[in-house]
Amino acid sequence: MNLSNENVIHVKDKDCEYLQFRKLLEYKDILTHAYSLGTDISYRTSTVKKEKLPKDEYEKVIESYKNLCNSIDCNYVNLVKTNQEHTDCVKIVNEKENLSDPDFNLEKYNATDGLITNKKDLILSTTNADCILLLFFDPVKKVIANTHSGWKGTLKRISVKTVEKMIKEYGCNPLDIICCICPSIRKCHFEVEKQVKDMFEKEFKDLENSNDIIEEKIKDKKWNIDTVLINQMILEKEGLKNENIIDSGICSVCNSDIIHSYRVEKEGYGLNTALIGLK
To answer: What is the C-alpha R_g of the chain?
Structure first.
């Protein structure tokens, strides 16, 4: 299987597979990035309950990160990873805490779903299994961000809050910011019941073309929601150019043989990771 399309390239290395965005590759002299592929490995650094993984499982995760980082020419020790909890919390990263190990499972990143930095050699990491991961890059100010936006994060507009923080902390101009949308569950499979549908209708009543966002699947019972389109629309309202919002166009459920999907795998689901760093 090859997931390459007009926006992403599917890279097959001997030790791992991953996607890269064609737009971000235009800046490969100052930027490195990847979205991991493969359901035979997982990038989970703790259990679902945030407890430590058994040593042998953790070592496999570290080896997976090492292989991916080696493939995109960066040092896995420089990884900084969020402890995601579907919040709207976005934090600035100025330095590593651990000198010889990745910054995994640090208390300072608890309940954190987005990271921003302008420091070189810090590799920002998020993970997903259906949720949206967003890679931001301002090539003018040389600022990057990596944000996890599940349906709860989308309701909280964490993507917009990431941009707002890039503007406030680094003086970024939204017209310069590029946002790349990694594989995630799409409207074709994101089916919800009335309670969730009502929350989306209330929060995004300001958006036009609501029929494109929410589609009734089973009358008065089930609806499909396009969270990717919502993020595209609210980012445009925040000032990003349409042509700078680059969607992979890949559904994690439709491609669950190569991308982890919570809706498919259920309990014990694995995680893919998105990485981005300045050289």
So the answer is: 18
